[in-house]
């Protein structure tokens, strides 16, 4: 049986050489939202991995939408210039398609970096007042966020649009909207975070309204050559919260709006969540959405082995596999997976001579001479 993992795939207008996606991974290493030398190193090595697509980390559409003061942003000319410089260097050595995940942290903003404790920052310690659908804090001990009014909603919609336009100017080939992990768009979806009594709260249709408006606004400004998808927490893992049934409704509406893929994750909205963590624990959620909607679907979550990834593609659970921690642990994961399946990937000429004798042919573009 030929490997599906190393077969080509199309995300709307974007052709991928294989089904492996480097997930967006927060690095908490930006300077006032601007990419730094760390991003050049991090994205540079991920772009040499042989994956089919590289997605830049959750990138805030406004300053108060950053999770931490170190989070990447795309809300200013300075942000755009800094990321342009990084991308120019990365593209100089890799033709891998690059996407970006646009995000707003909502009530989970104004937090310390994970290695600095990850807790909410006080206003006197570099923090700021977060914004959310309702003035309900993520944790009971935290300062409540400011509930967004109509002007605030309009501002954030426009911020997503402006960031999408910057992404186009940067030549990025795909955009993923972050509606997962307890951040702003997810907060609107979940009744645990959204207790509004206006057109944006209450019923499922109302709770979906703002995320769908953001999707429509971004879709309208992206050229047809740029793919657009959504990362979704398919369940809150909390009774009375957002769940798979509601996710199926939301995904169906995204499909009607020409969404090119859905990246299926879960959780993040509440400290009360009870997640049954284990290998591939989120794959059934991806399978359910794919089967119900036909949307191109990415599976994520404790997918670490090549045979595991191949199996979930073969059984129809997903169309693509997105890796995060596994790629940090082993940035050459796709090389090794290709060798195990007798498949091939593209690698930089500087690394061609690293190909082991038993894996000859794994570098599809290698032409090694002797001197």
Structure description:
By secondary structure, the chain is of the alpha/beta class. The protein contains ten helices and twelve strands. Helix 6 (244-256) links the parallel strand 9 (227-233) and strand 10 (261-265). Helix 1 (37-46) packs across helix 2, helix 5 (204-221) runs parallel beside helix 6 (244-256) and helix 6 (244-256) crosses helix 7 (283-293).
Please report the distance between the alpha carbons of the first and last residues: 39 Å
What does the largest sheet look like? 8 strands, parallel, barrel
- Residue runs with pLDDT of under 50 for 5 or more positions: none
Report helical residue fraction: 25-40%
CATH class call: Alpha Beta
Q: Can you count the helices?
A: 10
Count of distinct strands = 12
CATH topology (fold) name: TIM Barrel
What is the overall shape? globular
What value does the average pLDDT take? 96
* SSE ordering: EEEHEHEEEHEHHEHEHEHEHH
Class by alpha and beta content: alpha/beta
Explain briefly what this protein structure is:
The protein has helices at residues 37-46, 77-91, 150-169, 184-189, 204-221, 244-256, 283-293, 306-314, 325-329, 333-341, and strands at 9-11, 14-16, 20-22, 53-60, 98-103, 131-132, 146-147, 174-179, 227-233, 261-265, 297-299, 320-323. By secondary structure, it is of the alpha/beta class.
């Amino acid at each position: 049986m030929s490997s599906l993992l190393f077969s080509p795939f199309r995300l709307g207008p974007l052709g991928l050489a294989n089904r492996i996606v480097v997930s967006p991974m927060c690095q908490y290493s930006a300077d006032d939202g601007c990419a730094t030398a760390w991003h050049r190193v991090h994205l540079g090595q991920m772009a040499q991995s042989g994956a089919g697509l590289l997605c830049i980390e959750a990138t805030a559409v406004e300053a108060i939408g950053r999770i931490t003061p170190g989070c990447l942003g795309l809300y200013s000319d300075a942000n755009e210039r800094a990321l342009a410089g990084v991308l120019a260097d990365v593209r100089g050595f890799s033709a891998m398609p690059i996407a970006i995940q646009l995000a707003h942290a909502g009530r989970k903003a104004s937090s310390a970096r994970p290695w600095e404790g990850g807790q909410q920052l006080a206003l006197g310690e570099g923090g700021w007042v977060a914004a959310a659908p309702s003035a309900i804090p993520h944790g009971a001990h935290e300062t409540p966020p400011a509930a967004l009014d109509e002007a605030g909603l309009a501002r954030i919609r426009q911020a997503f649009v402006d960031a999408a336009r910057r992404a186009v100017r940067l030549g990025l080939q795909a955009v993923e909207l972050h509606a997962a992990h307890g951040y702003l768009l997810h907060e609107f979806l979940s009744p645990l975070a959204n207790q509004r009594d206006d057109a944006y709260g209450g019923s499922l249709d109302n709770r979906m309204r703002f995320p769908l408006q953001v999707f429509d606004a971004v879709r309208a400004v992206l050229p047809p050559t740029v793919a657009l998808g959504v990362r979704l927490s398919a369940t809150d893992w909390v009774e009375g919260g957002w769940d798979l049934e509601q996710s199926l409704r939301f995904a169906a509406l995204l499909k009607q709006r020409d969404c090119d893929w859905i990246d299926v994750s879960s959780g993040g909205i509440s400290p009360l969540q009870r997640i049954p963590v284990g290998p591939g624990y989120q794959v059934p959620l991806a399978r359910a959405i794919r089967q119900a909607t036909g949307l191109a679907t990415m599976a994520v979550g404790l997918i670490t082995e090549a045979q595991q990834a191949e199996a979930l593609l073969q059984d129809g659970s997903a169309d693509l596999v997105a890796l995060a921690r596994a790629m940090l642990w082993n940035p050459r994961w796709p090389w090794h997976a290709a060798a195990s399946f007798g498949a091939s990937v593209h690698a930089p000429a500087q690394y061609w001579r690293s190909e082991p004798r038993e894996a000859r042919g794994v570098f599809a573009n290698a032409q090694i001479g002797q001197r």
